[in-house]
Amino acid sequence: MPFKRYVEIGRVAQINYGKEYGRLVVIVDVIDQNRALVDAPDMVRSQVNFKRLSLTDIKIDIKRVPKKKDLIQAMDAADVKNRWEKSSWGRKLIVQKRRASLNDFDRFKIMLAKIKRADVVRQELAKLKKSAS
Amino acid sequence: MKTILSSETMNIPDGVSIKVHAKVIEVEGPRGKLVRDFKHLNLDFQLITDENGKRKLKIDAWFGSRKTSAAIRTALSHVENLITGVTKGYRYKMRFVYAHFPINASITNNNRSIEIRNFLGEKKVRKVDMLNGVSVVRSDKVKDELVLDGNDIELVSRSCALINQKCHVKNKDIRKFLDGIYVSEKGTMLEE
Which stretches make up the Large ribosomal subunit protein uL6 alpha-beta domain (chain B) (predicted)? Predict the structure, then answer.
């Protein structure tokens, strides 16, 4: 029940509102009660409101406001990209992106695959029901 | 001004088992079980064990105003009262005070209610039912004394208040007519 993900220097967060929606950033400093200074390897260091951030489990080891070079080094050392893509949150995002980028033919193929899978499941269920009764 | 985090901890003695779930605290000990609901407070309750292996109750207030930070310590005091209620119990003693008309009290309903007659010579009979889990007994060794026992301090002290308030003097100078039943001692059942 207590909080496990804290706002701290080095906490990796995802922006969940605004122009930078979906981007992974690192909190490099806390400005005041409501705002943080965030940085990412491919963006200019900027301020963001805490309400626009969703904290992740990942934390990297940096000093307050590191240089871009040191930030990239620390992110590689903690292997943020791979940990993110392997985490269940990251995997769900990848699936969502794939689903959003489907064309009609892909959706048709998925429909057929779902029907086939449901078929197999129903046959197994019928077998189990028969053996149970 | 909002304080980012204010927290306090308290030790839990051995012999009591505490369960904390969704701001409802359940304390169980040798004298029974007490439950208290803190859902009206905006605090985080958690049970932790510190380095020495002792169990503690920790209360956090995140971004609290002055009032919510103050509520931390009162919640701890309430839990402390639950713990002593469940280990030692509460014993409140009340004395009859009268100038001329002796207060006649009889305990009915197997120690659960009290009838008061002849208060200030009045014909009216005052009946007070004790709250849940509180028992009242006329002290045998001391003259004109009532002893109220119970586990929950809120219920015991409220029963005392009910008895006290039933015996208020009306339409008279209360500086002169000092009759009544007053709480004389607040203590626990286990005397050390």
Answer: 12-89, 101-180
CA A78/CA A1 separation, integer angstroms: 27
Q: Is A6 on the interface with B (CB under 8 A)?
A: no
Residue B91 near residue B183, CB atoms below 8 Å: no
Specify the pTM. Answer: 0.83
Which amino acid is it at B115?
Answer: E
CB contact under 8 A, B44 and A33: no
Contact present, B75 and B43 (Cβ < 8 Å): yes
Tokens of A55: 């904290």
Using CB atoms, pick whichever of B4, B44, B62 lies closest to residue A1. Answer: B44
Residue B156: which of B82, B101, B72, B104 has the closest Cα? B82
For residue B49, count CB atoms less than 10 angstroms from its CB and return exposed for 0-12, middle for 13-18, buried for 19 or more.
Answer: exposed
**Measured between CA atoms, how close is A26 to chain B, in angstroms?**
21
B146, B167 Cβ separation under 8 angstroms: no
- Mean pLDDT (chain A, rounded): 94
pLDDT band at A1 (very low <50, low <70, confident <90, very high): low
Q: A52 CB contacts (<8 Å, ≥6 apart)?
A: A15, A16, A17, A18
ipTM exceeds 0.85, yes or no: no
Q: Distance from A33 to chain B by nearest Cα, in Å? A: 8
